[in-house]
Design a protein that fits this description.
Blueprint lengths: L1 E8 L5 H14 L4 E6 L6 H5 L8 E6 L5 H15 L6 E5 L6 H7 L5 H4 E11 L8 H12 L3 E5 L6 H17 L10 E2 L8 H8 L13 H4 L2 E7 L5 H13 L5 E10 L5 E7 L2 E6 L6 E7 L3 H8 L3
Parallel strand pairs: 1-4, 1-5, 2-3, 2-4, 5-6, 6-7
Antiparallel strand pairs: 8-12, 9-10, 9-12, 10-11
């Protein structure tokens, strides 16, 4: 049977960064792997960030986002069927940061997937600089992803104090309590920044498994609070992007913005990968990009956000 791992994490926590390292670790062990990407929306930026992993022993697949729940589940099942015929040792699933955890487990109980796949690990990435003030829907997503995890990694752990780490863990446990989940997290948490994960850490993560928990479900489709907006070919540059993003994230009239990501070009006409949350903005060189900015959050106001993006 093919082992299948689910890597979850709320928006901007660092799932794709972790997957790049985890996948490389598996490749170094001589495994053949497939990575199944799904972004929250129609443009899959994260898949572009994993392109350098592609080769004879690693293939990338994508599920188109921006669809209703049943359509997404059908696409997920169809893609897993096709990947089950490829001879992989392991499949890694990276859902969007807004994901119904039940979909993963329910689809894998379907025939013929139940005979082809064995669930390996559920690993959840949580930003150690987790915001204290989050909506009920956001806390639900955070808790539901943590509830099933065999291990939780506090990303950016080297950038915060011990007190901040403690507050983040308390936030996680309070969120679990709010959805009436009896699980409380402590020993399952790895407080280590993603760049500092060691071979021993990956050996542990490879065998961390998962936990089946019960909790009060929230119908996220009915909430309709989360959204993503795409701005293509706006010619935003390195010189003005930080100011634009800061205005969008600070202006409540834009809605509750969690994350802005995409690509911009620098003065040398080279691509930079943009990733912005309320904890900061990073821009890293990348070989291939696309002129796109993606704004993700709750109750987004497109006209207001667009007015900032179009300020050159």
């Amino acid at each position: 049977m093919v082992k299948i791992d689910l890597i979850t994490g709320f928006l901007g926590a660092g799932k794709t960064t972790f997957i790049k390292k985890y996948a490389q670790y598996l490749l170094d062990k001589g495994m053949q792997i497939g990575i199944l990407e799904n972004d929250f929306g129609a443009v899959n930026v994260d898949m572009m960030l994993l392109q350098n992993l592609m080769g004879d022993n690693c293939e990338l697949e994508m599920i188109s986002g921006g669809c209703d729940k049943e359509t997404h589940r059908r696409r997920f099942r169809t893609k897993l069927i096709s990947m089950g015929m490829c001879g992989y040792d392991r499949v890694i699933v990276e859902p969007s940061g807004i994901f119904d955890m039940d979909e993963f487990f329910d689809v894998l109980r379907d025939e013929p997937l139940e005979q082809w796949y064995e669930i390996g690990n559920v690993i959840t990435i949580v930003d150690a600089k987790l915001e204290e003030e989050m909506s009920e829907e956001a806390n639900y997503l955070l808790a539901s992803e943590a509830a099933y995890a065999g291990r939780i990694i506090l990303s950016h752990a080297d950038e915060v104090t011990e007190e901040q780490k403690s507050h983040t863990i308390q936030h996680l446990n309070k969120a679990l309590e709010q959805i009436q989940c009896k699980r409380r997290l402590e020993k399952e948490i790895l407080c280590k920044s993603l760049p500092n994960l060691s071979q021993a850490d990956f050996e542990e993560l490879l065998n961390c498994g998962y936990v089946m928990e019960n909790y009060r479900k929230m119908d996220m489709e009915e909430q309709k609070g989360f959204d993503s907006l795409y701005f293509m070919n706006e010619n935003v540059t390195e010189d003005n992007i930080q100011e634009i993003v800061k205005k969008i994230m600070d202006d409540s009239e834009c809605g509750s913005v969690f994350r802005v990501k995409g690509f911009v070009k620098n003065a040398e006409d080279k691509w930079l990968q943009l990733n912005a949350t309320h904890n900061g903005i990073t821009m890293q060189p990348i070989e291939v990009g696309q002129e796109v900015l993606i704004v993700i959050g709750e109750k987004l106001q497109e006209d207001k956000i667009k007015s900032y993006v179009e300020q050159k």
